[in-house]
Design brief:
Shape: rod-shaped
Order of helices and strands: HEEEEHH
Strand content: 5-15%
Radius of gyration: 26 Å
Strand order of the largest sheet: 1-2-3-4
Oligomer: single chain
Helix content: 55-70%
Distance between the termini: 38 Å
Number of strands: 4
Length: about 120
């Protein structure tokens, strides 16, 4: 890991090369972020590219995620209902075992979806 003086020299070099210091800080190390002439945003301490998102983008992603979760939940409930009906009329023990495995998988998915929503 670089010393603080080395980090400052690195930031100065970025500024000399045309990079712009931004008001945002790295979410990992809290060092100021720099926008390079290429348009990429990077943290000089972590030496990683950073992507900045707006609150609107985050809200859009949250809405899309909720829609996907709702669709998955509806599908899981539908499949659980279908498998339950199939199990009621099934006489073959091997088939019942297969239905039970599938039911278990759909119920696990339903449980995971509920945890994701918390």
């Amino acid at each position: 890991m670089a010393t603080r003086d080395e980090e400052i020299k690195q930031m100065a070099e970025l500024l000399k090369s045309g990079a712009i210091m931004l008001s945002q800080a790295c979410p990992v190390c809290k060092t100021p972020l720099f926008k390079l002439p290429s348009g990429d945003i990077m943290c000089p301490r972590c030496k990683k590219r950073v992507i900045i998102t707006s609150r609107e983008e985050e809200a859009t992603v949250a809405v899309r995620s909720e829609t996907v979760l709702s669709n998955l939940e509806s599908l899981a409930l539908s499949k659980i209902e279908e498998l339950t009906l199939a199990a009621k009329s099934e006489k073959n023990l091997d088939q019942l075992f297969t239905i039970e495995k599938h039911l278990s998988l759909w119920l696990d998915l339903l449980e995971k979806l509920k945890k994701l929503r918390k």
